[in-house]
Amino acid sequence: MAESAQEKTEQPTPRRKQEAREQGNVVKSAEVNSVVVLFTAILSLKLTMAAFGDTFQKFFVMVYHESSFLELTPDSLPQLMWIVLKVFALLTLPVMVSILIAGFVSNFVQVGPLFAKKALTPDLKKLNPLSGLKKLVSPMALFEVFKGLLKISIMSLIAYTIINKYIGDVSDWAYLSVQEIIGLIADILVEIGVKAGWILLVMAAADYGFQYYQHQKKMKMSKEEVKEEAKQYDGNPVIKSAIRSKQREMARMRMMKEVPEATVVVTNPTHIAIALKYEPTSKSDAPRVVAKGKLKLAEKIKQIARENGVPVIENKPLARGLYQACEVGMEIPVAFYQAVAELLTQVYQMKGLKLPEFGE
Questions:
Q1: How many independent structural domains does the chain possess?
Q2: Could you tell me where the beta strands, DSSP code E, fall in the chain?
Q3: 220 and 294 part of one domain
Q4: How many CB atoms lie within 10 A of CB 220?
Q5: Are 190 and 184 a contacting pair, CB within 8 Å?
Q6: Quick one: average pLDDT of 148-155?
Q7: 332 to each of 10, 284, 337, 357, how far by Cα in Å?
């Protein structure tokens, strides 16, 4: 029985999901990021290739032109390095920026706005070499190795197939301009990227599904964990029940203190008792329910009423109607005015008094 209680068969509670999210434990596939970055790089490379070839050609012309009289000295080397870095930045910056944006958007779409402070908190347990060794030989680690090898194999096979198609034309490249050679290399890279990208896209979809399944499985809770969480956040059910019981007892005590001040108690006769209080301070005042109860509580109300000289009158329809329609402290509804007025008239006649009007 204890073993079944510990089986993780229950869906995670909203608090469990929130805690996991705060710790950075969310559904995310690195393969999805890789595919998005790959297609973004291909697109940006395709769009910037004309400018890329033009800049590269101008750089080679400049190097060729300046090489005949440029001397490499401690003074000229920094200047030359700055020119090379500037050209490299102009060539790569558009692609790098687009890749950074694509990586950010891909992560944002997968996990939404998230800053997991707890994940950044230093944890000495992570420095335990035994724990690290276990992770290296775990099934998930082996799966990641297999996935990496599969990706490398697919990329290598596609690259080999496409490059082999163009390798026979390499001898003709000597007759092409620098811009044409760059354009041809770009076409080869784009073809490799697109064909590999579609296969990796299928792998990414499968990997995201697998990551989602693993996350849901990891997040499941045992019945005991659900109970413990309920105790922790909502309070112990036993204690809450005891508090509610105490509150009901205190409410009953306050209610019983009002019975001696009641004007009349109307009964069922044995099952229900309603104590009404009428204070005719103005014509708009209506009788108010100061106590009500069933069975033992009804008997207690009638006993206190008799001990304090409060009339106890039997009226089954009126007692049932008031019990269902009124709560303690409420004025009686208009629908009961006539019946209650007749009841109070009877009480006032017993005392030799005249009943003031109410409810007009």
A1: 2
A2: 8-10, 221-222, 264-267, 272-277, 288-294, 312-314
A3: no
A4: 14
A5: no
A6: 84
A7: 48, 12, 7, 14
Q: Is-above-0.70 flag for pTM?
A: no
- How would you class 282 by CB atoms within 10 Å of its CB: exposed for 0-12, middle for 13-18, buried for 19 or more? exposed
For 102-124, letters b (16+ CB in 10 Å) and e give beeebbeebeeeeeeeeeeeeee
What is the tally of helices (H) and strands (E) in the chain?
A: 13, 6
- 241, part of any domain: no
CB atoms closer than 10 angstroms to residue 233: 9
Q: In what order do the strands lie in the sheet with 264-267?
A: 288-294, 272-277, 264-267, 312-314
Query: Residue 276: is its pLDDT beyond 70?
Result: yes
Residues 6+ apart with CB under 8 A from 248: none
Q: How does DSSP classify residue 294?
A: E
C-beta contacts of 16-19 below 8 A and 24+ residues apart: 16/219, 16/221, 16/229, 17/219
Q: Give the range of the structural domain holding residue 85, as residue numbers without chain letter.
A: 11-232
**What would the pLDDT profile of 106-136 be if each residue is shown by its tens digit?**
888 877 776 655 555 655 555 556 655 666 6
| Token pair for 255 | 């209610």
End-to-end CA distance of the chain: 67
